[in-house]
Amino acid sequence: MSRRLVAPIFGMVTLLALWESFVRLFDVRRFILLAPSTAVRYLWRFRSDYLSAAWVTVQHAAIGLLLALSVALLIGSVLVSNRFLETAAQPVLTLIQVVPWVAYISSVVVWLGSGTAPALFMVTVVCLPAFIFAAVDGMRSVEPSTLELMASVNASRSEVLRRVRLPSAAPTLFTTLRFNLGLALAVAYYTEGANFSNKGIGAIGRRAAADNHADRLWAAIFAIAIVGVGGLQLLALLERTLLHWHAAQRTESV
Amino acid sequence: MDPTMLAADSVHSARMSRIEIRDLSKSFGDLAVLHQISLEIESGSFVSFIGPSGCGKTTLVRVIAGLQAATAGEVRVDGDSPEEARAHKRVAMVPQQPGLLPWRTVRANARLLLDINRAANPPDAAEPEALLREVGLGDFMDAYPHELSGGMLQRVSLVRALALNAPLLVMDEPFAALDEITRAEMRALLNGLVAGRGVTVLFVTHSIPEAVALSDRVIVSSPRPTTIVADLIVDLPRPRARDIDDEARFVDLCAQVRHALHGAMRP
Ligand SMILES: Nc1ncnc2c1ncn2[C@@H]1O[C@H](COP(=O)(O)OP(=O)(O)OP(=O)(O)O)[C@@H](O)[C@H]1O
Ligand SMILES: [Mg+2]
Questions:
Q1: DSSP string spanning A111-130?
Q2: Is B4 helix (H, G, I), strand (E, B) or coil?
Q3: Yes or no, beta carbons of B102 and A164 under 8 Å apart
Q4: What pLDDT does residue B45 have?
Q5: Torsion of the alpha carbons at A155, A161, A167 and A171, rounded to the nearest 10
Q6: pLDDT at B4
Q7: Which residues neighbour ligand 2 (ion) by CB within 5 Å?
Q8: Distance from the B91 Cα atom to the nearest Cα atom in chain A, whole angstroms
């Protein structure tokens, strides 16, 4: 327990200390690398601005993730019972995954305008394929004998989905959620910067970069980092509560 | 007075299942698995199926349970088609692997079949918790499957099926994955559980002593395409003692089954 608490703090403190001394010793240009102490001080001074910006970014990422997850569950439930559609969907989803989202973001911004719409749209689309793959894999992972047991009492398709397939998919979905969290933050940050709005950490970062304002830029970087770490902690907590049965199974098999 | 006992007694005749099979054949493509099987099974009897691996025992019980359609012939469960019996939850399965859902507690797993397709639940469904206590899992109601041993998991699987209070219980090698000691325990437990419940049990096994110790009747089948080569009545009295294996009649019956089985395999 103490190791699990102390070790990560030790790692972080070491990184920040090395970073701080590196910047001071070698007198790095501010824009390239800012001393953490300076960035944190700036962040603290303008905390209310950063806080409201962070709230916007959190909403973009979280709502986008939830939308992607819901759509993935819907599409996944259809694909899992239809091999033809699954095979048809494969190339489309792979295409979404391999085409860099930064490439078509300008078109989306022109289409959806500035503000929340393009951010939510981008986060949802970019996170969707991994969620769908995870949903289908997870729902397929059910033992045939379990399905047979359900059939023996004439379970309906929706009962099988709700009682067996969805819970079976939960562990894979959580793993994907953790991976998609970073992606969602990146997409939200970038879209906020690219969509001419002045809301969100991404918007602050973009303007700071354009103005060559190192303190503001690095404070934005710290802000998004804090949001990311907080999100991961929240996910870990959720996973421990909702999937305790799975965690226990895992540790036993190791 | 135990209310479940009372309920079971008063509805005995209604919750028993007579099975009639006429000229049943089943093939998978070109592979003929069952060949013109005819068989009648009395309500409330315990019937074991024993036969060489791959001969089609699983196929046979799956057809009877309404999980697979026959290619030809007819199966009646209480006069109804197997699909109809299944739709009314009159067939309870105990699969080879317990297959408990890892996110459900023992209590919730025992309830699983009652939670599905609720509309078809019988009015006299058994109380899973009472059954769990009966099989000695009273202290493990809130445990999760990963905290249980193989024998305990299989006991939950047994309770899950019995809780339906279905007149037909289909068990496909339920104890195959268990060690010898646990198997003997499960055998005694099952004998006690079905006694007085009036259920018809179809029991697939590879173990001759297990078949004889549990059954009223042992049906021996040939290799594919399966036909019935022997149909032996087990006239051992009930309730059966744990050490029934030592009795001369038991040994004799086992020998009969073994000979029928070997005869079937070397035509
Ligand atoms: N769904 C299916 N499709 C095609 N062939 C099948 C199918 N189910 C079973 N078979 C074939 O039918 C034959 C009988 O299988 P079955 O599982 O009924 O045998 P079994 O007697 O239960 O064997 P075991 O004792 O090993 O469990 C096997 O040759 C098997 O390959
Ligand atoms: Mg089998």
A1: HH-SSHHHHHHHHHHHHHHH
A2: helix
A3: no
A4: 93
A5: 140
A6: 42
A7: B 58
A8: 7
Cα separation, A38 vs A17, in Å, equals 13
Please judge whether B87 and A154 are an interchain contact, meaning their C-beta atoms are less than 8 angstroms apart.
yes
Nearest-neighbour CA in chain B from A210: distance (Å): 52
What digits encode the pLDDT tens for the residues A112-163? 988 899 999 999 999 999 999 999 999 999 999 999 999 999 999 999 999 9
Interface check for B117 against chain A (CB to CB < 8 A): the answer is: yes
Helix (H, G, I), strand (E, B) or coil at B225: coil
Contact A114, B67 (CB under 8 A): no
Residues 6+ apart with CB under 8 A from A113: A195
Whole-angstrom Cα distance, residue B144 to residue A148? 22
pLDDT tens string A15-35 = 999 999 999 899 888 888 889
Tell if the CB–CB gap between B99 and A143 is shorter than 8 Å.
yes
Ligand 1, atom 18, residue with closest C-alpha: B56
Chain B residues whose beta carbon lies within 8 Å of the beta carbon of residue A153: 86, 89, 113, 116-117, 120, 164
Q: Whose CA is nearest to atom 8 of ligand 1?
A: B59
Q: How far apart are CA B234 and CA A119, in angstroms?
A: 74
A166-169 — which CB contacts under 8 Å span 24+ positions?
A166/A73, A166/A139, A167/B101, A167/B103, A168/A138, A168/A139, A168/A141, A168/A142, A169/A76, A169/A134, A169/A135, A169/A137, A169/A138, A169/A139, A169/A141
Per-residue pLDDT reduced to its tens digit, A179-201: 999 999 999 999 999 877 779 99
Q: Closest residue (by CA) to atom 1 of ligand 1?
A: B28
> Which residues in chain A are contacts of B102 at CB distance < 8 A?
245-246, 249
Sign of the Cα torsion B208, B137, B196, B164 reads negative
My answer on whether omega of the bond before B267 falls inside 30° of 0, hence cis, is no
Q: Are A249 and B144 contacting, i.e. CB atoms less than 8 angstroms apart? A: no
> What superfamily would CATH give domain A46-243?
MetI-like (1.10.3720.10)
What part of A 127-166 touches B (C-beta under 8 Å)?
143, 145-146, 148-156, 159, 163-164
Identify the closest residue of chain B to A171 by CA–CA distance: B103
Ranges under pLDDT 50 in chain B: 1-14
φ/ψ region of B136 (left if φ > 0, alpha if ψ in -120 to 50, else beta) reads: left
Q: Domain locations in chain A? A: 46-243
Residues B162, B168: Cα–Cα separation, whole Å: 10
Encoded tokens for B201: 């049990």
